[in-house]
Amino acid sequence: MKNSLMTNIFNCEREYLVNFCSINNGPYTWKFSNIHLPDMYLHNFILIEVEFDGIERYINSEIEKAQRNHSSFLRIVTPFQLSNHTIKGLSFNPEEGAYDYMVINTRDFKLLHGNPDCQIERAVSSNIIDDGFLVDKQANQHLEWADFYQRRFERKKKVYEKFDQNFQFYVCYHNNAPIGKVESAFLDEFVKIEDFDILEKYQRKGFGTSVIKHLLKTANSMNINQAYLMTDGSDSAKEMYTKCGFEKAGEVWEYIFFLDK
């Protein structure tokens, strides 16, 4: 990767994912798999770091392996866009998408205001984690995969119940009711912001900004200079991130092959 900032972010991503996934690397590639959540796209994929001769043949061989293992999908992630020529040579036609990585300097917490009418609590007890679970359930209950989101949270809960300083879970309260939650991973060079939700009723009222400010201030006190998150074009919170001062650092493309169609 030519972008050194993105290289550092990908290194942090691996540092984060190792807590949930098994990781194997080969020439130009990294394979991630989560045996507890084999249907979770973000934890089961192959990262191809650079273009190389034979990439089309490589992807087709991985499709064949996934089929032999009766996998329903194969997800490929790249920091570059596959050419139309390569895609036409693949045995399955993928669904293509793009994600932006956005970064901010943690000292910028001083520029944020938010809504002071809330309390942000780190989950240092199972009760607070359970409050976060309620937010997660309410935020995703309308989705077709509500059962998946419950299984995903239960899996992550096992990590956050260790109350490790580097993996912190926060819940945002308004009038003592949980209205938002966010996960954060304090890594070598960054704090990673993950699975951030504010319940729809409380959006656009400054609560999300308050959560971001709290995370940045915490990271800054730990001498971590930058924070990052990943978002896609349909993410309704992207406008808030931009207003808070996040800037695009780079992007990745994903190619999902649905093998059971």
TrEMBL record:
A Pfam family of this chain: Acetyltransf_1
N-acetyltransferase domain sequence ranges: 119-261
Signal peptide: none
Any GO molecular function: acyltransferase activity, transferring groups other than amino-acyl groups
Name of the protein this chain belongs to: Spore maturation protein CgeE
Organism taxonomic ancestry: Bacteria, Bacillati, Bacillota, Bacilli, Bacillales
